[in-house]
Amino acid sequence: MALADRHDRWYSSTGATAFKGNYFGYSGRLSGMATSLGTRIEVGGEVAIWKRWTMRAAFGVVDGGEVVRRSLARDRLTVLSLESTLRF
């Protein structure tokens, strides 16, 4: 993963939200003139519990690149996500 240009910013978001007329949800960090965000490795799977119920799980590791190392105290992120879907 990389920024398009070393002058770009590293953007993150929770999505646009409105609170008392103000919009919020996006932020950008300076790149420090670097472009490498890091490498992501992820594995996941899905299983049907019943005809209308499925479970998904994913596990991933992100090894932060130069932009991340300049911005954060840690340069490794481990992510586990679980999703349950019930269709009516």
What this model shows, in words?
The longest helix has 6 residues, at 66-71. The chain has 88 residues and is mainly beta. The chain contains one helix and five strands, in the order ββββαβ. The model has no long low-confidence stretch (mean pLDDT 89). It has one domain (9-86). The strands form two sheets. It has a three-stranded antiparallel beta sheet with strand order 3-4-5. It has a two-stranded antiparallel ribbon with strand order 1-2. The chain has one helix at 66-71; strands at 9-19, 22-30, 38-50, 53-64, 76-86.
Secondary structure: number of strands: 5
Question: Biggest sheet: strands side by side, in what order?
Answer: 3-4-5
Helix content: under 10%
The N- and C-terminal alpha carbons lie at a distance of 38 Å
Shape: flat
Secondary-structure element order, as H and E? EEEEHE
Oligomer: single chain
> How many whole angstroms does the radius of gyration measure?
18 Å
Uncertain residue ranges: none
Count of domains: 1
Quote the beta fraction: over 45%
How many strands, which pairing sense, and closed or not: the largest β-sheet? 3 strands, antiparallel
* Structural class by SSE content: mainly beta
Rounded mean pLDDT score: 89
Number of helices: 1
